[in-house]
Every structure is written in structure tokens, then in C-alpha cells.
Amino acid sequence: MSGVAPPPGAATERRTSVVVVGGGQAGLSVSWHLVRDGVDHVVLEAATPGHEWADRRWDSFTLVTPNWHCRLPGYAYDGPEPDGFMTRDEVVAWLRAYPATFSPPVREHTAVTGLLPGADGGFTVSATGPDGPETWRADAVVVATGGYHLPVVPPWAPALDPAVTQLLSGDYRHPGQLPDGDVLVVGSGQSGTQIAEDLHLAGRGVHLALGDAPRVARTYRGRDTMTWLADMGLYDVPVTRYPGGLAAREKTNHYVTGRDGGRDIDLRRFAAEGMRLVGKVGGLLDGPGGHRLGVAPTVRASLDAADRVYNSICADIDRHVARAGLEAPPGSSYAPVWEPGAESTELDLAAAGITSVVWAIGYRPDYRWVGAPVFDGGGRPAHVRGMTAVPGLAFVGLPWLHTWGSGRFLGVAADAAHVAERLRAGLLDGAGIAGAAASSSRRLAG
Questions:
Q1: CA 193 to CA 332: how far, in whole Å?
Q2: For residue 254, what pLDDT is reported?
Q3: Domain boundaries 12-149+365-445, CATH class
Q4: Would you list the domain boundaries of the chain?
Q5: Whole-model pTM?
């Protein structure tokens, strides 16, 4: 740069071999391998490493996977409760201690705004850092920003009665945050059911609009169900060998909780205790400013489907115990503790005393800043175990990137190792990256 300062507002240009976008557990895991192998790189993090665990989780949040699942490269949970469930603050502290174990080259408060592949290979990454705009030239880029960026909210939500407070699940913190009155939680995945439980335990009137999420037992036959599943190899099955194949990436995770040492989430029991369960929300029945919602009569079907999955997983564990000749307490089958009566097709928020709505339908990816042809019709990256058809461009930290464990602490280390090795090999041999991408392209096409 000849020592001449760039004009005001000009982007500072830097060069490195690999840019890792995102400093969460996935990006840091890739960096660990690159540091170990002596690969020049930088991790660009919009805030601070692992910040989303603090910013998008409620106060009573706990992991739903046992602590022993928390294994990153060179770093694993070593606390006193391997079968327990870390709280939000414990997860944040655990993650924040990780970088100190290997000193990754993280640039904090540096938000990536654009990514373009070069005509002759390599990439240009645009970002805004603490000192203003900056540009990075790199041979390879790893996108490690996850797949949950934009909240899924019905298009008619802004037309809802303005007297009703609306909150995204990622912005919910505690029951006292919401105005007095009943709360409608829309969505029965992991976040929706746990937030509904949090409100229910606080004595709030809760109405839960059910979706299609399955559920799972917290413990079964003397052990945590997720420990059984890990022993059975379920978290290691590649998505291509999973029933339904790549469609598994669209599936909702099973709901359960690690709160208070871990327990089932039984929506039927909640209903017996006074929680109101309603079917899928369809839309406003009145005009702008309205408060009458149409709901589908799907409560019974949703509960029955979730229970079938619950019992089928328990039956899988029974077969595993029998095949392996293991000693374990007797098995059982869940029997419903409550049944819905006649189902309404309308929910009048005002008549029900509902003063707030928590949208917990989910989040979808937003990769509009990635200017490379690597996405399917739904805006999701097309890849083979993280490697795209564009030479040198990879993704990590996505649900079902390779296995069921990919979106969890348990599986991210293996995915990061694979991507880092493929990129390292390509950097050592210029044809390597192109060759790996060509192979991925053929497999995607096939």
C-alpha cells in the first residue's frame, strides 16, 4: 500500500488465504483446524464470538442436549454434570472461554456485507469494521453464519390489533416482559414449547397454537434419550442415507427441555393444568386492526402425531437394548393424560383476554449478501458436506449439513474438520479446490 493513507470512506484492502464469516461455534471450529495447520486466515465476526447465545435466548433457557454433547475441536465440556444441561449463561461462558485455548484471528464487530467470486478464482469479501469499510481478498471463504436469520411471521401480522403486543421468539426474555393478560404463543417447536412452559410456570394464561413438531422422551429406561440415540449411531447417519434424504433438512426438531435437570414437555399435561391448545393459525378473520384469528381444527392430530414419534423412538431404544443384550429398567409406552374436545376454528384475542403474541414459527436463512450461484429455489445453499460447486466456497454450522448432529455441538467438530481439510488441500494444490468443487458439482447434479 506504499504507506499512503486511503481517501476518506475508501475501503481498506487486506489479503488472506481463508476468510471465515461468523465467529460462533462453527466458525471457531474451522479456525481451530486452520490455526493448527498454519493456514493464514481471518474470522470476521459481526459482534463477539458466540454472542447469539446471549442475544437470542430467554433467561430460563437451557440446552436440550446433555452437556457431554458439547465437544468442539480441542475443547469439550469438563464440568461436574456431563448428563446435565447448561443454562444460557453457562453456555455463553463456555463458548467465550474457547478462543483463549487456541488464539484464533478473530476481528470482532466486523459485519460482512458482500461476497463475490473473482473471475480468475478467489473471492472478494466486503465488510464494515470498527474503522470503517474494509475489503478482503481470499482464496477460500467459509460461511459460518448458521441458517436462522429472518423470522418467519405471517404477512398479516402487521394488520393485527395494535393493542396486542407482538414479540419474536428471539426477542423473548421472561414473562414480566409482556403486558398483563394472556399470551398466545404461535409455534410448537423447541422454542415455542419452552417459552409456553416458561409462561405457564409463571402463572400466565397461555394459548399455544400447535404446528407439526414431534416430541421425544427426556429419559427412557434409565438414561437420557439423546444418550441412547448417540450410542445407537443416529447422530452419525449421513443425510443422504436418512429416510427421505435431503428432505430431512426441512424437519423440525423434537421438543423436550433441559430445565430443572431435564424433563419431558407434555402439552397434554399442560392442557390439563389450564393451558389452552389451538390448531394452526390461518389468518385474520376481520380487517386491519382486527383480533379474530382463524385456526384449523388440528389439535388432536398434532398431539397424536407427536406422541407417535415419542413412542416410536422409545420402541427403537427397546430394540437396541434387546439386540445388544443390555441391562436396563423396563420399557413403557406413553398414554395420553388429556384429550381435546370439540375444536374451535376461531380465536378471538380480545374475548380470550390475549394481550400479546409470541411468534415462534421459526427462522429462515438470508444469504442475499453472497453473490455466488450456490443456492436452491428456497435460498438454501446447495452443497455436499459443506462444499459447494464454486471452488473454495464452503458452509458449516447448518442443520443436517452432513448428519443429524451437524446442527448441534456434537457434530459441528467433524463437519469443521472435513471442510478445513478440503480447503487446506486445495490451497496447497491450486487444482485441489477446483477439483473438489467439480466433484461436489457432479454429486449435486446426480
A1: 24
A2: 93
A3: alpha beta
A4: 12-149+365-445, 151-362
A5: 0.92
